[in-house]
């Protein structure tokens, strides 16, 4: 048995790959649910009703999808150019911290129409700055950015932890380590009243559409892809490699920083060290499930959010640890790698 | 200044250095073995987490400590096989596969732990490895408490570093492994299967990583806490570059790193809250990044690292 590279990638197969991968992941996780002594089909049924069964549940799932869309887009943009930005988690925290600090210390008195865009930009800038460090190390010292972005996640979260213990601690929080709050006029308006769903969803969706256009229809999109497929070839074809990677890093870090800013302005109102349950890391899964396609990122983020919100509800009633959601999402990444392989290769005897 | 001298002169510091270094030595050796054969293994963080959990769980359920280590090693080997299947047989992106393994192994560890261990106010404990009493050596003044009050796995990890150096540079097997990382086509031409070599290296390397994780719960500490690995896996990957893919230097790098870590812990207590503790905790990560910046250009990277090998395809 051997593998033979396909001449054409059948479009149907490429579209089916994530569906097959998710199905395989759900089947494997089913074994683990059975291990916990719970009825598997009922558990999945409860995950679905837990995520979409009521108005509250559905808006909660969409709220949870917002940071996943943004970190998914951050990973997709970077990975397309083979810039291994695994630092979205740290960039998200720094973006959130920057937005909260800017709101309470600088722009707090400005009206929403001015303050909200300013805060979003501040958050994005913070994310960009954090990713520029590893990029600089790569271009200047040939240090692989995959390790430095991973290590900087810890540095960034410790830095945020230090700030909310000291300079940016909320004095009104009864000693709890939480940051100064985002002011009333810096809070993102609700998309649906009496829910947590905020306009961040609209921003994330709009950015997905913009990025899809940029990737498919602009010179920058093509250059970024060329830089990923073959750096040497790209240089030979006249692509300014350093500048292209820099632009990719600015977009990727900016998106991750924006995810943090939107989360703190739309949902929590202040920063703690438990702001993100790993949105940065799961953004990688989202990007891969989407095959790095920005519009696919939306669908993949929705799947992950469904698992996370639904598993919480299911775990409470059936006694299955809600970590099953993390397991399923991680398994779907591994399954997706296999599925993608078979869109490129066929098996020959 | 006198504070610093007092810290350096305490036997406790040097004992802590060896203790902190052990999981790093094991993890770095594991990663080094994988990369020497040409496979980057970003699964290390998750594999260490899973090894820490499953080794502890085995002992918690009545197995003896060495069985716990063995169980951890087997679990690491299993994750290594999955990584090898994806990256060697299928040749998919080693970056993404490794990150997938890390996400899967760590969330699977948390899931099993939550499922199988009753929730309690204080985390349940086991009786960990005890320091070995070595005749004569352990009784020496200063040197005894500083260097010879470690548990058995620490001595084992140092021996393993020397053993791996010998295997890689003095045996035909080591030559095959190194050659697979440099030029798998040449290995094939010699009648050795690069696929088999990579499978072996990734499986054995991942087993070492898991043992490194298990040291945390079975020797350095006595219970399992989620997120206890705290980026040690990523530090190991940095150490491999720092060591320029040589086991002896990896041992030295891990010890050096552990020295700074132990030192900052003591400095932190000596300074007693004048400086935010988070600054000290950042140091190890910043140090790893600095070490990478200094050594990355000089390091001799295995030439076929991250290159999938497909027979008859270039």
Automatic annotation (TrEMBL), chain A:
Pfam families, per the entry: BPD_transp_2
GO molecular function: transmembrane transporter activity
Main location, first listed in the record: membrane
Entry-linked InterPro entries: ABC_transp_permease
Protein localization: Cell membrane
Membrane topology: Multi-pass membrane protein
Keyword presence, Membrane: yes
Keywords linked to the UniProt accession: Cell membrane, Membrane, Transmembrane, Transmembrane helix
Bilayer-crossing regions: 12-41, 61-79, 91-110, 116-137, 144-164, 197-214, 226-242, 248-272, 279-303, 323-343
Presence of the UniProt keyword Lyase in the record: no
GO cellular component terms attached to this protein's record: plasma membrane
Protein name as annotated: ABC transporter permease
From TrEMBL, chain B:
Keywords: Cell membrane, Membrane, Transmembrane, Transmembrane helix
Localization, UniProt: Cell membrane
Top-level taxon of origin: Bacteria
GO cellular component: plasma membrane
Main localization category: membrane
A Pfam family it matches: BPD_transp_2
Membrane topology designation: Multi-pass membrane protein
Membrane-spanning segments: 6-26, 38-59, 65-86, 98-117, 155-177, 233-259, 279-296
A molecular function (GO) term: transmembrane transporter activity
InterPro entries reported for this sequence: ABC_transp_permease
PANTHER family registered for this protein in UniProt: ABC TRANSPORTER PERMEASE PROTEIN, SUGAR ABC TRANSPORTER INTEGRAL MEMBRANE PROTEIN-RELATED
This protein's name: ABC transporter permease
